[in-house]
């Protein structure tokens, strides 16, 4: 109450009613070490209802994670360690950035999947509960999380995967911003989760008619959830929001605003506290709460014995764990990357699949799959088992609980949040695929991956009107620049098979940001002159002007590099020296120093054309006021892709004409003598 009152904004109600549950979890249930927030043997806690950030911050303070009372006093202030919603990497003990409701629940599912995969990599034969890699994922959710559609996607998949290492506590307080949730929600949430295949438990602190915070009943439910190893557990905890505020409890007013001085004072009187004191934490209270560090230190010592014994018995696996934990790639790993024959023809989605299969035995940490589009996305590593309970494996996709190929089903939004959870858990590196146009379904998760600097890779295929007959609903037009607008996301559109291999190489060498591969359905020529270094720099000279003094520069990405190369041939035949720049990744090119960028795009060459089968938008920066963009400013159509390119004017002839138009703007369009 004091923190929100001082900040002038915030969400006190849920933090008040969830305080006993959070204290119980941190003090008695969860395995964690406040002196080492990154301990690999720890349980993970995800506060999916991130608006109730004080639920987490107060426990981090009481447990001894380094937050101070002054940090709580600076809630939601500039440069504080207690921002309005918890942020991963900003505050010790915060496992993920939660804000958009439902995302944290998806992260928790991803963490539970990653924990099982990690056990399969390093200690698959240990008895249940006997491995140092066995740990639990705990998650608090609110009505907002449960109502968001993403909760269905991730919860259904968690039940299908039988994630017995996951417990979700649902704060069922019947209140949201618009007050009583009955105005918008009436389903039986427990039955919903029962239908998903979860163990469902209920703890009702209102069942006696009075409000009784029965912590023992909740503790018993948490322990029962930990004992259930073949199903995730969903605990419905019936609370009263804002209890025991005498006038504002159980109202929408206490959800997202300060109580006001009078109500704060009245609540403190109910609790037997001094209403004139703020941020009052008696020394003996803090000393008692900090005892969790000692208790868990002792528990960690026992864990350490088990871990040390594992390392001694498994030196090769231990070395692999150390390498993967350090985000270090194995020596010589790039030798496994395939090289594709110059002059051949291959879709970049197929080349990506070949790269993944080649890397499978070299990079065990790399795993992933698709949102039901494996054959289209080429995301299945050849010969690798699926990550699935054995009873659900199929003839097409055999597998086991420790498998590698992920099947998200038709759940793009959920896939994005789960990929983030896998990356946050640590120890493995995930990728996920769908069509580029459906990246719209994933955008909130992609944005959070960029915000958290997570090394998640998106394999987005069918990247333009080149997918053809499926028509405008499936043909991305605005997506490339919409995605490039996300700070910290690398959008990579390779021109051919070898650029695709080089793109994967560069992406895997980055450990501090997500990347999106935009790949073709249609075959593209494999070029002479593609460059691993050039791709890593984001843009490079693929074809130089015949006299090395270009009058015009053609910039292209992906499948449109072919148009630029062919357009160059037309221009060169007309005596116009032309350079072709392949720019697979605008973000990587921006990251180069000015000297390199000028060597590729000399400021003196103002006649320029950018070519991409999408909206022009950001290309204006590269072509300048005298340049032209060959683009699409409208939706596509249903027809064979070659017809679409021709009908929409995405041709080599159009590129050459645009180059001459740019030259004309500069007064460099020479006429010819026509007679007397």
Describe it.
Helix content is 39%, strand content 13%. It has 26 helices and 22 strands. Helix 21 links the parallel strand 19 (552-556) and strand 20. The mean pLDDT is 97.
Throw out a few tags for this protein.
single chain, 676 residues, alpha/beta, six-stranded parallel β-sheet, five-stranded parallel β-sheet, 26 helices, 22 strands
- Which of globular, elongated, flat, extended, rod-shaped describes the shape? elongated
- Tell me the number of helical segments per DSSP (H or I, 4 or more residues long): 26
As a whole number of angstroms, the C-alpha radius of gyration is: 28 Å
Instruction: Give me the side-by-side strand order of the main sheet.
Output: 12-9-13-14-16-15
**Helix-residue proportion:** 25-40%
Percentage of residues in DSSP E strands: 5-15%
For the largest beta-sheet, the strand count, sense and barrel status come to: 6 strands, parallel
Point out poorly predicted stretches: none
Annotation, overall tally of beta strands: 22
Round the mean pLDDT to the nearest integer and report it.
Answer: 97
Q: Whole-Å distance between the termini?
A: 92 Å
SSE-based structural type: alpha/beta
């Amino acid at each position: 109450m004091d923190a929100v009152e001082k900040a002038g904004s915030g969400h006190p109600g849920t933090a008040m009613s969830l305080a006993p549950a959070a204290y119980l979890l941190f003090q008695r249930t969860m395995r964690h070490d406040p002196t080492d927030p990154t301990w690999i043997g720890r349980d993970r806690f995800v506060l999916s209802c991130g608006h109730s950030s004080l639920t987490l911050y107060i426990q981090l303070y009481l447990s001894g994670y380094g937050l101070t009372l002054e940090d709580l006093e600076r809630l939601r202030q500039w440069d504080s360690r207690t921002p309005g919603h918890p942020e991963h990497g900003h505050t010790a003990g915060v496992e993920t950035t939660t804000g958009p409701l439902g995302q944290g629940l998806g992260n928790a599912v991803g963490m539970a999947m990653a924990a099982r995969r990690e056990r399969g990599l390093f200690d698959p034969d240990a008895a249940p509960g006997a491995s140092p890699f066995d740990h639990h994922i705990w998650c608090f959710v609110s009505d907002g999380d449960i109502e968001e559609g993403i909760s269905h996607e991730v919860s259904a998949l968690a039940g299908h995967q039988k994630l017995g290492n996951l417990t979700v506590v649902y704060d069922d307080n019947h209140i949201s911003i618009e007050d009583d949730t009955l105005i918008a929600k009436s389903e039986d949430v427990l039955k919903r989760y029962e239908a998903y295949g979860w163990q469902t438990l209920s703890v009702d602190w209102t069942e006696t008619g009075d409000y009784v915070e029965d912590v023992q009943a909740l503790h018993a439910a948490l322990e029962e959830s930990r004992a259930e190893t073949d199903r995730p557990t969903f605990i419905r905890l019936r609370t009263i929001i804002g209890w025991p505020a005498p006038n504002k409890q159980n109202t929408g007013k206490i959800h997202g605003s300060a109580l006001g001085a009078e109500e704060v004072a009245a609540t403190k009187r109910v609790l037997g506290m001094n209403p004139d004191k703020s941020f009052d934490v008696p020394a003996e209270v803090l000393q008692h709460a900090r005892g969790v560090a000692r208790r868990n230190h002792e528990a960690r010592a026992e864990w350490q014995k088990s871990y040390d014994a594992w390392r001694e018995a498994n030196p090769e696996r231990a070395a692999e764990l150390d390498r993967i934990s350090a985000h270090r790639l194995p020596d010589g790993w790039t030798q496994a990357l395939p090289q594709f024959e110059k002059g051949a023809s291959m879709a970049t989605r197929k080349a990506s699949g070949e790269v993944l299969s080649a890397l499978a035995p070299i990079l065990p940490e790399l795993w992933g799959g698709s949102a039901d589009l494996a054959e289209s996305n080429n995301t299945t590593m050849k010969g690798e088992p699926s990550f699935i309970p054995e009873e659900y494996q199929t003839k097409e996709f055999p597998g086991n609980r420790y498998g590698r190929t992920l099947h998200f089903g038709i759940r793009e939004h959920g896939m994005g949040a789960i990929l983030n959870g896998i990356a946050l858990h640590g120890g493995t590196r995930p990728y996920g695929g769908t069509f580029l146009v459906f990246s719209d379904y994933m955008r909130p998760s992609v944005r959070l991956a960029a915000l958290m600097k997570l090394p998640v890779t998106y394999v987005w295929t069918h990247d333009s009107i080149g997918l053809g007959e499926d028509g405008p609903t499936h043909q991305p037009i605005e997506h490339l620049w919409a995605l490039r607008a996300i700070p910290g996301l690398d959008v990579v559109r390779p021109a051919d098979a070898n650029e695709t291999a080089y793109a994967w190489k560069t992406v895997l060498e980055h450990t501090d940001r997500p990347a999106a591969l935009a790949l073709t359905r249609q075959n593209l020529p494999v070029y002479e002159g593609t460059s691993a270094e050039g791709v890593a720099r984001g843009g490079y000279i693929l074809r130089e002007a015949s006299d090395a003094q270009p009058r015009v520069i053609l910039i292209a990405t992906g499948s449109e590099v072919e148009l630029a190369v062919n357009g160059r041939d037309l221009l060169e035949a007309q005596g116009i020296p032309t350079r072709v720049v392949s720019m697979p990744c605008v973000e990587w090119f921006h990251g180069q120093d000015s000297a390199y960028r000028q060597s590729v795009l000399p400021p003196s060459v103002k006649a320029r054309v950018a070519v991409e089968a999408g909206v022009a938008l950001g290309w204006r920066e590269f072509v300048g006021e005298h340049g032209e963009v060959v683009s699409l400013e409208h939706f596509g159509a249903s027809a064979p892709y070659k017809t679409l390119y021709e009908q929409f004017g995405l041709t080599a002839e159009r590129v050459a004409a645009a180059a001459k138009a740019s030259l004309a703007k500069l007064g460099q369009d020479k006429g010819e003598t026509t007679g007397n």
